[in-house]
Amino acid sequence: MIGKKCLLASAAVLFAATLCAGRDRAETVVDINGKYQLVGGPDRGKLVEITALFLKGGNPKVRRMLGSPRDPGTKSPHKSRPFSLSPQRTGSPTRVPRLQDNLSNLYEGYLVGTDPSKIVQISDTHCDKKIRNEKKIVRLINELEPDIIVFTGDTLNTAEALSRFQDTMKNLEAKIGKFAVRGNFDAGYWSNLDLFKDTDFKVLEQDTVTINKNGESIHISGFGARNTLMYSQLLKTIPPDRFNVLLYHYADLIEDLEGLNVDLYLSGHTHGGQVALPFYGAIITLSKYGKKYESGKYIVGDTMMYINRGIGMESGHTPRVRFWARPEITVFNIVPGSGVHE
């Protein structure tokens, strides 16, 4: 009897997830996860704003999470760094008006007189025989007019989808540059394929690049999946007064970064569980840390980590469904301290 009940419960979850997956290509929900206090003074401090675009069905809604001021007794983790982050305790959700067709309107006038460096992250496209969200993410991301686009691994479920993946990545537009790291699928199954050919994405294996905008510098470091033997040596070369973004498919390095000048760590892999439950979250993450880091934003030591839920779905015998873990595009606005108005 217990076995039958479990089977029926599993079938109900899969049925609901299938319905949800069918609607995921219709609309978008936007969640602004937090605001971060200016740290280091008006000439050196930075503010980072995170916006998650979740692909879904139904009417667009926007949820703004406003951060409360940092405890004055708390030591700033990056007191002397130009792109410092000071975590805020998240306040109650506040409803704001519906989005316009052009999602970039969300940012107009938010910080008067600023010109943020806008980084858009996507992950885990898992392109398959069947087209899903590929065309939609191109339209949404290009409307945002990002400076930088980063991809944090896992490209394909099948080699037959290579051209679809490459067309998608090629059609993404960034003002400054596009950067990628390989995921476990790419390193394990598709190492013989030139995955990023003609896409204008620079693949970071154990590399750091420097991005400049309006006199401000951002370092972007990246490692391919399971290619981290020399990660500490590379990260130690980053100047301590520079903001550094780390791209790595897994969240596995997060508790080993103390003293390594990593401000913002962007990863994927977990899919947010792909199938999750209300009030519980991801059922399975396939992560070294289990559910400890399953999706979204985490502050560990001096590093902010963000785990993107990805765009696609797991291959193999796993059902091609998502439930309570919508596909995600994440936007990071990094604002020069001189432009922040309190």
In short:
With 342 residues, the chain is α/β, with parallel strands linked by helices. The chain is 15% helix and 29% strand.
What descriptors fit this protein?
342 residues, Purple Acid Phosphatase, chain A, domain 2, 29% strand, alpha/beta, six-stranded mixed beta sheet, 5 helices
Report on this model:
- The protein is of the alpha/beta class and 342 residues long.
- It has a single domain, classed as Metallo-dependent phosphatases (Purple Acid Phosphatase, chain A, domain 2), CATH 3.60.21.
- It is 15% helix and 29% strand.
- It has helices at 2-23, 134-144, 162-171, 184-188, 231-235; strands at 27-34, 46-56, 61-68, 89-96, 117-122, 148-151, 177-180, 201-203, 206-213, 216-223, 243-247, 264-267, 276-277, 281-282, 296-300, 303-307, 328-336.
- Helix 5 (231-235) links the parallel strand 10 and strand 11 (243-247).
- The longest helix has 22 residues, at 2-23.
What is this structure's SSE topology?
Blueprint: H1 2-23, E1 27-34, E2 46-56, E3 61-68, E4 89-96, E5 117-122, H2 134-144, E6 148-151, H3 162-171, E7 177-180, H4 184-188, E8 201-203, E9 206-213, E10 216-223, H5 231-235, E11 243-247, E12 264-267, E13 276-277, E14 281-282, E15 296-300, E16 303-307, E17 328-336
Parallel strand pairs: 1-3, 5-6, 6-7, 7-8, 10-11, 11-12, 12-16
Antiparallel strand pairs: 1-2, 2-17, 3-4, 5-17, 9-10, 13-14, 15-16
Helix pairs in contact: 2-3
Q: How do the helices and strands follow one another from N- to C-terminus?
A: HEEEEEHEHEHEEEHEEEEEEE
Question: What is the share of helical residues?
Answer: 10-25%
CATH topology: Purple Acid Phosphatase, chain A, domain 2
> What's the CATH class, please?
Alpha Beta
Mean of residue pLDDT values: 74
Number of strands: 17
Low-confidence stretches: 4-27, 36-45, 57-112
- The general outline is globular
Identify the strand order in the major beta sheet.
Answer: 4-3-1-2-17-5-6-7-8
Biggest pleated-sheet summary: 9 strands, mixed
Percentage beta strand:
25-35%
* Structure annotation, total helices: 5
Oligomer: single chain
Structural class: alpha/beta
Q: Provide the CATH architecture.
A: 4-Layer Sandwich
Distance from N terminus to C terminus (CA atoms, Å) equals 62 Å
Radius of gyration: 20 Å
CATH superfamily: Metallo-dependent phosphatases
